């Protein structure tokens, strides 16, 4: 849990760029020291930093010593490795030392826990341990530090290490010959370990530091004995490489667009799993919590690569549903304290994601999994939310019944016959639109329609005619009500306030048009065809800013009008949801154009969305300012920061971008034991290849196009034999197969 049990300090400070971790190389003869990474003690020459899947490497050369520092986390244990390889290029022997430092938190905030942290040395192996017996979440856990070298000194005293008024750039410990070996209670706590290194002329050494957490001192001793040596460090890195190679190698594409290949062949899935599902943390937000709607959407992108993770997430989320059908908006593991709200879309993502999982994998058994509900105080009508730790109810039901309860909870309509918006419907910043219980959401109506239509398919499989009839009838009612009450004349409105004032209307001074009401009129396949196309034309006219290469969520932004939609109005106009590009929704826009058959515009927007293209030159990266190989949550649309990216890594845009790329544009759709291909590719693509692994069987698929690049598949051959259908049968025979797909 990256929030409730932080091991080291989270510094949300992009200006000073501080850290709670440091490593130093010191020349024992001259006293000069530097870091093998650019901070905290920058050396005299440059650094090379390489990020891979599950690891990062820093390379540096200083005073005749080259260093390569690799950091990663074991796949099978809560152990972080910092492995430093030193090479002596000077013409003489060198006496060096390596010092590793960690600032300890062992809780949420350092200032609230530092007085409770106690450090000690293990007499068996010399490891340094720390524990916080008063920790709210993990008071029983032990944090450990160890090195592969037998000779070492340690300290648990941060004040001693840094020095009075000192900094990590010039830590006092680096001006002394050794650490003090002081541990115990009452210190400003840290974990630091120093070891001497002797390098002959031309010699090379590899030194391992491990940092991690265990359930007890005995377990910590087992971890340090096992991992704090070079052989196990190499095995752990091999395990990291093997996991990501297999996971990210499930689908490997070769297209004429190298920027697409970079994202599709690794970074989008890596971002989704590592940051969204596992870490639930990023530089801009160290939340540690599961979001009900958030990780369900992430999991839908993992159907091809790691369906097991998607299945786990469905069960995990269903366990956070109350008996009444609503859910926790987010919650913290391991005990489940979180927020209960009136947000109206959260619970609907459970049936939505369940339908996708079952229809793609054929795993109907998950529908019968028994899952307990939660019990907690119901929200009062005037409450927006409350934070609590609910209890597990004695009542349980199948996942199927959990989904039914969620759908029925969503079928609460207002005076316009549209779903009640509550305290937000996807855009949490619109928390005041329906906070009195009467506001209605147009977008939620589209989403609910598609939910009902898809779930009717599952209900038919189970022979549940009552639910089939409910879903079909309610979908028709909602569709009629949208066309009757939500059309604004040139596009669909976004919502209605509690008092009946429309939002997303030409009559509004601000937020005259919002993209998601338009895109989901297409994505739900429920919008009137002529109106939906007109609505998307309005999106293209008013929200696609080709000059700035971004796609706005809404326009004009909220600022000075009498409209009070909620905290979205607190954002600077043109930033984040308030009129900037909110990438999550921008991807839906591109999906909608593709689904309409407008491939030219869909690919134009895809290229706008691709972060690689925002970092393709020195000028563009100076404007974009964030990592150009992962998705960012938003792009600013306000001067003087137009085109600047914000909030990278921890964003659901990664999963949706993967689905846009692989499923919508390249056209791969998993249907249990078949793969349907419906490409929507640019006209100048003559062919592209997809290497698709189904379990232990590999399919090499070549899609042949012509100058028109039609989406219609006219012929498929499997190992030279023509198939009688437009789908590729998937077999688990542990062989390799060649597939050719021909477009007219």
From TrEMBL:
GO molecular function: carbohydrate binding; glycosyltransferase activity
SUPFAM superfamilies from the UniProt entry: Galactose mutarotase-like, Six-hairpin glycosidases
Example GO biological process: carbohydrate metabolic process
InterPro entries, alphabetized: 6-hairpin_glycosidase_sf, 6hp_glycosidase-like_sf, Gal_mutarotase_sf_dom, GH65_N, GH94_catalytic, GH94_Enzymes, GH94N_2_NdvB, Glyco_hydrolase_94_b-supersand
Record key words, sorted: Glycosyltransferase, Transferase
Residue span, Glycosyl hydrolase 94 supersandwich domain: 1-229
Keyword Transferase: yes
All copies of domain Glycosyl hydrolase 94 catalytic, residue ranges: 243-667
Record-linked Gene3D superfamilies: 1.50.10.10, Glycoside hydrolase, family 65, N-terminal domain, Maltose phosphorylase, domain 3
Xref: PANTHER family: CELLOBIONIC ACID PHOSPHORYLASE, CELLOBIONIC ACID PHOSPHORYLASE-RELATED
Name of the molecule in the record: Cyclic beta 1-2 glucan synthetase
Organism: Acidithiobacillus ferridurans
Lineage, opening ranks: Bacteria, Pseudomonadati, Pseudomonadota, Acidithiobacillia, Acidithiobacillales
